[in-house]
Amino acid sequence: MNTRWISPAWRLHRDEQGVISILTVFAVLMLTALLGMVMNVARQIDGKIRLQNAADAAAYSGGVMVARALNVLAFSNHLLSEVMALTALMREGRDQHSDQYVPQILSAWETAARIFQKSPFPKFQRLGRAILQQTPLEQELADAFSAWAKATSELILPTLEMILEQEMIPEFERAVVRAYPDMAQQAALEAALANGRPDHGRGDLCGVIWRTGSHVMPVGGAGESFRSTIPAVDPTDPSHADRQTEARNQRDRLASQYVARWNNEVLQFFDRRARMCQYAVLWRNFVDGQQFPPCGQLKQVLTDYDRNLPHLIRTPRRAIPEGTINQHLDDEFTWVGVAYWNKLADFAPRIFYNPMPASSVAFAQVRVFVPHRRLVWRHHVPGAEQFGGMPGNFPPLPPPGSGDTPPPATTASESWDVGRQPGVSERWDLLNQNWVAQLVPATNAWIPLILQQPPQVPGVDARRYRLPNVTLPMDQILKISTH
């Protein structure tokens, strides 16, 4: 037997040099595969988080723009009524109807004062002298106020009348209703795009805000001619002519309130220190005509510019059938934001494979509403009530030497309780400027249909995205949805 060939083979079998290199190769291959798996999982998780953030941002950004549009309309409605109130005040400043009656009234006071001076009673004699001293001062005050009102009217009245004559405020409101849906859609696009950088080869992340209800379509664009996204109507539109009386009554009532506020502001000296001449009473009657309606400047302004009507909420509360409030909120004040992103390319695709052929899609829901008043601490002090603060705070004390007499002693103790914030409106109308937007659980029944629609918005190529085939009804989607 020839052992010359057996000895080298035996030595090679027992030789352990270089084994660690072979093990290292297999270990590196395994670690590389694990690293690829980790990187794929991490990239998928990162993409999912950023996609959902984009959907939330798109929905919220669009909802904020709608809430802002409603607040702008509410502000403009107030502005329209205040312009009419100021126009009535400026017209009275121009016409000066009150001036002709002041000398007659003060002359009557002087006649009475001379009679008082002839009285045998000293106090009536002093009263007569005081009246004679006061009447020229009040006449001078009335003349100064009249001159100021006339000069102010010459500067301001032409501008106010031009605003009303050209219906600038109603036209601005129509522009708001037309423009803000497109602004909401653009805000959704930009918010989604910001969450898609870097894109890692997936292209631009697209965000679209959708309307719900039977008119499922993107916010803005041609769909606005069918039904506006902003839940407001123009009473001058022939299709909403039945709301003109409501709009007119709302405008007139608010204009009367603004007239009263302006009168209280400019006439406070006459109300407190110069009552004899009755200038404040005369001015108010000629401006608002409360006691003598034919004399009211405000009534004439409202008649002259009757087509200046405020926008109204689309569906008033009285027109919503009982038991359908939630459905009404879903149709009128709820929108769905959807984010679209192309499929993520796999890292080391020959080792790992993403079986999903469609683009990634995420959605979120936003609602616009008027919130309830906040809960605040109410501090009850005998004879007064204060809001805010913390239990245990001391009530404010008068400064030393102010001369204020302390309140009478009482056995009633101070108390604290919780109540609603005062002076904040909760009305769902277009006089309330407290509209807000908030993300809410995505439960709208139209979400499955929305997810089947391509992103049909200007500037977006819908062919870039391959939509998933969502055949599940909404009740089953809610079982697997985390939002």
Describe the structure.
Helix content is 50%, strand content 10%. A hairpin with a 2-residue loop joins strand 6 and strand 7. The radius of gyration is 38 Å and the shape is elongated. About 1% of the residues have low confidence.
Query: What do the pLDDT scores average to?
Result: 85
SSE pattern, N- to C-terminal: HHHHHEEHHHHEHEEEEEEHH
Q: Could you give the order of strands across the largest sheet?
A: 1-4-5-9
Beta-strand fraction estimate: 5-15%
Helix content: 40-55%
Low-confidence sequence ranges: 406-411
Distance between the termini: 81 Å
The total of helices stands at 12
Cα shape: elongated
Return the structural class.
alpha+beta
The major beta sheet can be summarized as: 4 strands, antiparallel
Radius of gyration: 38 Å
> Could you give the count of β-strands?
9
Features:
483 residues; alpha+beta; four-stranded antiparallel beta sheet; three-stranded antiparallel beta sheet; 10% strand; elongated
Write a brief caption for the model.
The protein is α+β, with helices and mostly antiparallel strands.
List the helices and strands and how they pair.
Blueprint: H1 6-14, H2 19-95, H3 102-117, H4 122-165, H5 168-195, E1 206-211, E2 232-233, H6 244-266, H7 268-272, H8 279-288, H9 297-304, E3 312-313, H10 325-332, E4 334-341, E5 360-369, E6 375-381, E7 384-387, E8 415-420, E9 436-440, H11 447-451, H12 474-480
Antiparallel strand pairs: 1-4, 2-3, 4-5, 5-9, 6-7, 6-8
